[in-house]
């Protein structure tokens, strides 16, 4: 199973770069890393190939996010552990917060974990990630800096057997004020 809340010793699972950046964006990268700290590196029941595949992270997303952060003088908040431990792009109540199935791969070590383990993982990465984003945004709002949050992801060209030929994807909810001009420029 996973680490116990008493095990300690794990590295920081969230990092913030350029927190004081003055550009109009805050970049977040929830799937920046495929790192599986002990004991997760051996306890999830996945192969070495799975550990470097899209199911474990968004390959290339952190590089893109860092490049945008530097070019646009924007803060960047990112995770340093794999989404197979906990998916920081999910609400705490989602059943796929700790995935038992990622695309078509079973994650046996995530099945039937005890509540204490779920809470440990929430406190390891999920809550610190969202707290870091909230802190960066709050500080910017206090300084009166215009802020648009942009989450950087990559996607696999084949998902569950279906081809995904797109080079760029933009996802937004109801507010299209950023997405539509970007699409028009592309």
Question: Key terms for this structure?
Answer:
4-stranded mixed sheet; globular; alpha/beta; 186 residues
Explain the overall architecture.
- The chain is built from five helices and eight strands.
- It is an alpha/beta fold.
- The chain has a single domain (14-185), classed as Zn-dependent exopeptidases (Aminopeptidase, 3-Layer(aba) Sandwich), CATH 3.40.630.40.
- The strands form three sheets. A four-stranded mixed β-sheet has the order 1-3-2-6, with helices on both faces. A two-stranded antiparallel ribbon has the order 4-5.
- A hairpin with a 2-residue loop joins strand 4 and strand 5.
- It is globular, with a radius of gyration of 17 Å.
- The model is unreliable at 1-9 (pLDDT under 50).
